[in-house]
Design a protein that fits this description.
The chain contains 15 helices and no strands. By secondary structure, it is mainly alpha-helical. It has two domains: 168 residues, MFS general substrate transporter like domains (Growth Hormone, Chain: A); 198 residues, MFS general substrate transporter like domains (Growth Hormone, Chain: A, Up-down Bundle), CATH 1.20.1250. Helix 10 packs parallel to helix 12 and helix 12 packs antiparallel against helix 13. The longest helix has 37 residues. 51% of the residues are buried.
Amino acid sequence: MFTGAALNEIGSWASLIAFWGYAAYRFHSSPDQIALVSVMWSAPGALFGLVSGGPIDRYGPKAVMIAADVVGFVAAVGMVWSTTYLQLVAMVTLSGTAGAFGRPAASSLPPRLVDDAELLQANALLGLTTQVALVVGPLVASVAISVWSVRAAFVVDAATFVVGALTTLPLRLRPVGPAGSHESGATHGSGSSDLWSGLRLAWRVGSIRRTLLLGLALFGSWGASMVMEPLYVRDVLHRSSATFGWLQTVFGLGLIVTTLLLPRLGERVVNGRAQAASVMASAGAVTLYLATSSLVAAAIGIFLWGVLTSLFLPPFYTLLQRSTPAESHGRIMATAGMANGVAGLVTTPLAGVVVAAVGVRSTALAVAAGLLAAGASGWLADQGAANSESRAAARAG
């Protein structure tokens, strides 16, 4: 699972770097055309969140992952042979669609591969694949483009999809959840074909609802940061794009180191209050990184943001998996992916408007205030739920 997922993510990041360059240099795209091709890569995650979970629960995550790899392969080969800007946009959209189905399917795998006690470790490994890809993917693209051409990066992406399918094929997924459920998805429950069933389940189950709302706050801050970060480095720190790249490496370092340490922290980080604390602490990291004029403070802030992101994400998926019936894992994982995509689609353009009006640092303080409020609300909600469960247990006793 780790090998296939890591190669898929590395190929996807290489392809992302390549199609940006291909659009800019091969088709001489304008800024709005560059923005469009970027949106068409990320939008399927938000648009297909309501439908991608159904096939995962019906046919099983393994089958959907292999199908997504096949579609991704076709899209990558299509990018190689794109001769017009519109053809490139169409293939990028197809690639984004493969990810919209493949990622929630991958997130549904750990409960079918490991015991509950090892679930956090498995999710940490799965998260590590994305983090490694953030560092290695652009490097792979740079080497392929330098040695051969932009199209070579798409060939690399196509090859990783093939390897991803081949590494997924021999996985033996075990029965999980209620009696009679099976990895093939035979037990998909009532309403599995209902597009809104994942959202209804997320709202009905308190632990899922609280976890997703905290995730929504953090995902929104990431969308806003996509606008703020390059402008902060340029206009506040007055540094070059090389500094921006160096800061992203510091963020990746915080992510990877903390993810490797997560198994040692264990169950202490897999609860609602730990999630809420990570969101509240992220407010401080955002303030240091994007609301100060010190490069040292910015480096400390972005490193801490990487640490806190890693403390949040694998436990986030672990909590969702434990709170969700096995036959609904696909729909809830897809709902989480949709929340991430929608938050980015909303906060990225909104941040652009706010930054233009009040500046980067004021916008960063507003984002930090939102994170602090969301984290505090999540903490109180989780404390209230724990108190209610204690009272119910006492009455039952």
